[in-house]
Amino acid sequence: MDADTKPSCKSSILDLPQLYTRPSSASLLSTLEQLSIKPAAWDTIGEASQPDKAGLPRYLTGIVASPLAWIEDENVKEQIWEAASARLSERSGRSAIPSLSRTFVIGTSTADSVSINLHEPSLTADNLGHKTWLASYLLANRFQGLVPHLPSLESSGKVIELGAGTGLVGLAIAAMFDVHVHLTDLPAIVPNLYANVNMSAAGITKGSTSVGALDWSDVLSYHVDDHKGYDIVVAADPLYSPRHPAWLAAAINYVLQRDVTARVVIELPLREAYVPEINELKSRLAALGLVVLVEGVERAFEDWQRGQQGNERTEVECWWAVWQWAPSTWFLRRDNAISNPQ
Length: 342
Hints:
Blueprint: H1 25-34, H2 56-65, H3 74-90, E1 100-106, E2 114-120, H4 134-142, E3 158-161, H5 168-176, E4 180-185, H6 190-199, E5 208-213, E6 232-236, H7 244-255, E7 263-269, H8 275-288, E8 290-306, E9 312-325, H9 330-339
Parallel strand pairs: 3-4, 3-6, 4-5, 6-7
Antiparallel strand pairs: 1-2, 7-9, 8-9
């Protein structure tokens, strides 16, 4: 076998460039590039990559462990080792994936679609906001269809996203509508959020954006510029701790405008482990005086694959809802009495 042959359409691990043949650096780099696993497109339902060849992790480990003595350029050696390590990481679950940048196309039609460029740093347990989660993608695409249930999305409108993460939902809203969107998250997430706002700035031609830290557990951080002045509060996949329902409800109560047109838009996956948190959030929002105006359930596939061969995609059911203040809420009764005296 020619050591420089490209790895396309290879049927066996033995068809890849073998180290004992001393393949060229170009051959190894080309092979490693073609072995990369990219996140599947969310709009390609159920599609999965081809299974890995048996023995591929061992093959990649062999490259990492090899001194590559026949390759003279030390910089090229580093590139090969880094590429082989990256291929191993991609097959070790989402938390092992190196940093990556992606472009998300949001919109129900080509004419109305917008492109959002996002950077996603390596995922850690403490910084889950560094990944773009499925519920964010679904809500960003759904938002246009929710317009009949929302207040006027004009230049005077103000939207805040709680737990914005990489910023997909908020940036998509600002790109599609003439509103100001304030994207918030934990202080550790905010630097990447700022970077993503700058990356997508060229595509934000209708609305505007700002970024700030807002820690739901810290009441002092609730003091955003428009306290109780936001027309729409948005949150996508916001629950991953038993404490989050109480914190999120408190934050919503603090920033949401006291007006009959104000709305809360939420989408989250119906993960079995978090059913108690989901039910608690619904109860707490109802206790504030909020009621569901419209809701629904949709199913989609996660972008990252799983399984020993990395070719299985997980189907997820997500619940979305638009909430509004109940007419019986005390401040709406007060305002109505003032406007319509007996």
